[in-house]
């Protein structure tokens, strides 16, 4: 599983302040940390960046590349001008994060990807917002990828993001996204995939977020997910993604296959992954106390 580090983000007080004040120290420190933590890509998230994004994004890219020039970057902002200004200064092939499945967005942004030979995240957010199920996701995917293909972008440069939603308020969507993920190879052969993994745990208490993120990553991996945007400080998630905890993967897969192991024969750690898998699958109702039951 490829990991895209999410913590070079404007919502961080430290990083947001550094962006605003053009203080390269915290930005470069974070970039080096992410590389050392094993991130395969570094996401630079400016948020809307409405005021000065066209100046800020290329500056941040250059500051990161001063200290980390061998990890590709993901340009993450809704400001199209900021993306356009940063693409020419990227040393390695970047990923544009993201292009929505809405004509007013993809008609402007796909040509940027063509011009700079960039990859892009195809976000399944359509004219009506979040798709209701995997079939609506599929319809949006076909529309957006067809447009990109016609413009000359092959599927191999497109990272499909079906959109992760919080399990505590939209539990069925977790299943829908997995079903959609399984449709991608037949629907658009060669297309890659990613997602904002931590959205699955957006809302539950902080101490429950890591196991939700880790479990859902493994579940998505079983359906073919290639990468996730993740917290580089979650060392357990990184270990699982890099194949260092096959025992956790095995127990999650067993539950998904309908062969849940005997809880009495498992450690408390593995029992928690079994319980969490069942919650995400909808076999157990979500509550903040699911690990205690």
Automatic annotation (TrEMBL):
It comes from the Bacteria. The keyword Isomerase does not apply. Residues 1-250 form the Pterin-binding domain. The keyword Methyltransferase applies. GO terms for biological process: methylation; pteridine-containing compound metabolic process. One of its GO terms (cellular component) is cytosol. Keywords: Methyltransferase, Transferase. One of its GO terms (molecular function) is methionine synthase activity. Belongs to the vitamin-B12 dependent methionine synthase family. This is Methyltransferase (Vitamin-B12 dependent methionine synthase MetH (5-methyltetrahydrofolate--homocysteine methyltransferase)). It comes from Desulfatibacillum aliphaticivorans. The lineage of its organism: Bacteria, Pseudomonadati, Thermodesulfobacteriota, Desulfobacteria, Desulfobacterales.
């Amino acid at each position: 599983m490829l990991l895209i580090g999410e913590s070079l983000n404007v919502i961080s007080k430290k990083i947001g302040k550094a962006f605003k004040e053009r203080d390269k120290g915290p930005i470069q420190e974070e970039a080096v940390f992410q590389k050392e933590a094993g991130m395969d890509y570094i996401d630079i998230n400016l948020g809307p960046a409405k005021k000065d994004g066209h100046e800020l994004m290329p500056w941040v890219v250059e500051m990161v590349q001063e200290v980390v020039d061998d990890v590709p970057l993901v340009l993450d902002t809704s400001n199209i001008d900021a993306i356009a200004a940063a693409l020419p200064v990227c040393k390695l092939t970047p990923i544009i994060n993201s292009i929505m499945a809405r004509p007013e967005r993809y008609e402007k942004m796909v040509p940027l990807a063509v011009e700079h030979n960039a990859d892009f995240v195809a976000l399944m957010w359509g004219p009506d917002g979040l798709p209701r199920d995997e079939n609506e996701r599929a319809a949006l995917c076909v529309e957006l990828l067809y447009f990109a293909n016609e413009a000359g972008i092959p599927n191999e440069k497109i990272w499909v993001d079906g959109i992760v939603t919080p399990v505590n308020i939209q539990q069925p969507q977790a299943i829908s996204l997995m079903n959609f993920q399984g449709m991608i190879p037949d629907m658009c052969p060669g297309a890659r995939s990613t997602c904002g993994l931590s959205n699955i745990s957006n809302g539950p208490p902080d101490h429950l977020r890591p196991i939700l993120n880790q479990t859902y990553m493994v579940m998505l991996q079983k359906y073919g997910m290639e990468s996730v945007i993740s917290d580089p400080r979650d060392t357990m998630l990184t270990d699982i993604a890099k194949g260092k905890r096959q025992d956790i993967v095995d127990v999650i897969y067993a539950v998904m296959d309908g062969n849940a192991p005997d809880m009495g024969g498992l450690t408390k750690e593995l029992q928690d992954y079994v319980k969490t898998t069942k919650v995400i699958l909808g076999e157990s109702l979500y509550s903040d106390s699911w690990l205690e039951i």
